[in-house]
Structure formats: structure tokens, C-alpha cells
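Possible regression after last week's pipeline update?

I re-ran a chain I had predicted before the update to compare outputs. Posting the input and the new output here so someone can diff against the archived version. Not blocking, just want to make sure nothing changed silently.
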Amino acid sequence: MRMVNFRLPYNTGRIALVLAAVLLVGFLLLPSQLQGVFQEVGSPIGWVLSWPLRAAASVQEGIADFWGGFVALRGVAEENKELRKELEHLKGQNSQLREAAVATERLTALLEFKTRAELSMVAAQVIGRDTGNWYRTIILNKGESDGFKSDMGVITSAGVVGRIVKTTAATSVVLLVTDPNNAIAGLVQRTRDEGIVEGTTQGMARLKYIPLLSNARPGDRVVTSGLVGGFPRGLAIGTITRINKDEEALFQFAELTPDVDVGRVEEVLVIQSPNVQAEGEQLGVPAVRPKS
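New output (post-update):
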């Protein structure tokens, strides 16, 4: 019996393979369009091939969504970077404005004090500090060319800062009230006891040579006596925090907290003419005229 050969010729198989490859490439390139065509035709082959096409379409959509999200995130990151730069710039401007406002307040207070005090004073700025083991000093931006001389008193609206000990043409060195080498004539405002104010090694101050019978106590205010030096009477120096009495000593002394935080001083007034007055006159008390 003769067998029938159903094998296709070699060229026909090659052509079918090429067509299948072309169709597959078309499916991958245009999956959504071809899927619609196969579904309309209703061919079993189209129905079978629609599944990989659906999968390809889903992958394509997922990639598109991912890429869109990635681009959006990059845009947000760039925007955040620019916003951070702008925020830092605004912070810097705000800091400068606040510093200018604080400086204006300090200078206004100095000007008002200078007007009330009726003293010959010149404003100066602190441009340097030396708080080493030997001396506690500050350096001012004015000197001999501005009329500054040694022993002139240096103050702020809060009280005494120190005295000038050295000058050049354009600068002055001020020995602070907290320096142990400084000495300022002081007065306990309540008891009227006089003494000498000098600094301590701890960066504070004390009033020496208080009489043993004095009833000075913590809380009493100490001011300049105006007897010697470049300060008029009545300028604030500090407040007594402790009284030290030694039965065998001839005097007692008081520890003080200075009214001026000399470590934070930025602008000062230099007294060029102390114009020593009575404390009552500085406070505005009318003078009593003798009867004619």
C-alpha cells in the first residue's frame, strides 16, 4: 500500500516561518491595534495571540507609568533643591535684618543716655577683645585722633565698662572693670560708704575698704563716687552679692555682680569730660539756693 506524504516543501515552511515572525513583530510593535483586529475577526489564532499581546500592553503601560513617575520625581527633587536654596537665602537676610534691628536698639539707647547725662561723650565700637590670664581688655575703633586719652572712663547706658589705659592714633585699649588691675572709686548708694572697686580673677568685681561698722548688705547698689578718676558720681557699677567680714581686719569687702556684661559689649561711650557733679544733680534733683 502506498503512503501519502503530507510534508510541506522546504520553501513553503520557510515562508510560513518568516510570516509568523513578521506577525509576531507586528504584535509586539502595535499590540493594542492588532489585538483589536484579532478580536473582531474572532479567529482562534487571534484569540490565542491576544494573551501575550495583553501582557505586552500591560508591560508597556507599566513602563510608561514608571517613567512618568520617575520624571515627575526628578522634577520635584529639582524644585525642592531650589526651594531649599531660596529658604537659606531668606534665612540669611532675616538674620541680617534682626542684627541690624538689635544694633539700632543699642545705639538708640546710647544716644538717649548721652542726651540725659549731659556729659561730653563720644561713641565708639568694640573691634577686639583680650580676656587672657594677664589682662581683661577690649579695643575700640577710636583713639588719639578722636580726643581719647588714658584714664578716660568708658561706659554704656547700663553702667561702667572700664577705663582707657593705652591709645594710638586710631585705637584705644580699655581695661575692664572686671580686671584685678583696675581700680575705680565706688560708693554704696544706700549707706554712703566709700571704697575701691576692682576686678577679681573669676571675672567679677568687689568693693574693698568698707568700714567694719558699715551695715552694707547683699542687694545694695554700688555706684561711682566721682572723687577720683574719669567718672562722675552716680554711674552704676554693680550690686552687692556677699559681704566678707574678718574680725582681725581693719576693713570688710563686698563681692559685686557688675551691671554691665563686659563680655557682650559692642558699643560704648567714652567720657571726655567727667564734669563731676553731685549725685542728686545727676538724678535731676533741684539745687537748694542759699538765702540772700
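Follow-up from reviewer: compared with the archived run. The longest strand covers residues 120-131. Marking as no regression found.
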